[in-house]
Amino acid sequence: MKRPIISPSILSANFAHLADDMKMVNESDADWVHIDIMDGVFVPNISFGFPVLKYVAELTTKPLDVHLMIVQPEKFIPEVKALGAEIMNVHFEACPHLHRVIQQIKEAGMKPAVTINPATPVSFLKDIIKDVYMVLLMSVNPGFGGQKFIENTIDKVKELRELIEVSGSHALIEIDGGVNLETGKRLVEAGADVLVAGSAIFNAPDPIKMTKEMKNL
To answer: Which H or E run includes 38?
Structure first.
């Protein structure tokens, strides 16, 4: 079994010591850096904006995995591109014209990804699955870090893996929310390719060791 891609979520980083945390991520076995952008409208919280993220982008050597939990994410395609992001991820629930947004992300030179919330069925992705680089399944309700993992996510991973195989898509499966060594192992066994981990990595006594352990699940 191939090892999972690990994408530490900087939502859990210590922003008073951001340079130190980003240095840790750079030196770790992490593959990407996961960035959650929240607007206080689509989700009940506000995270950080592009002026802050500009410095995050300058501090990391890892590809940026940018997740927009906002309304009208297509308005910010130029700003996400300007960060040097490799992946731009938008919510199914925030995009009534999702196919158009996916094409706009591709035209900007980024890899398009789509996220679904815990209550959104996997089957809703049937008509877009072949157009996206990745699908992110939220395993908590988006908006806050440190939430409890929703168990039904394991079944959704299996269902999504089946949809990908039946459709001939090559989309990766990413999971965000409540990911730790225990849930991560079960998610990888169910078919997940990418694990987003915030608290589990940044709050660990030895974050570099924790990242390595996740990478070896």
So the answer is: strand 33-38
Catalytic residue list contains 36: yes
Catalytic option among 31, 39, 176, 193: 176
Q: What angle do CA 9, 184, 141 make, to 5 degrees?
A: 55
Candidates 21, 36, 65, 193; catalytic one:
36
Which H/E stretch holds residue 190?
helix 181-190
Is 127 tagged catalytic? Answer: no
Prediction pTM value: 0.95
Euclidean distance between CA atoms 215 and 114, whole angstroms: 23
Domains and CATH numbers, the chain: 5-215 (3.20.20.70)
pLDDT tens digits, residue range 105-157?
A: 999 999 999 999 999 999 999 999 999 999 999 999 877 666 789 999 999 99
Residue 203: name the closest of 64, 46, 13, 32 by CA: 13
Give me 128's structure tokens.
Answer: 């877009």
The residue count for the chain: 217
| Residues 201/161/77/73 CA torsion (nearest 10 deg) | -90
Six-digit token pair at 163?
Answer: 């949809």
* CB atoms inside a 10 Å sphere around CB 15: 11
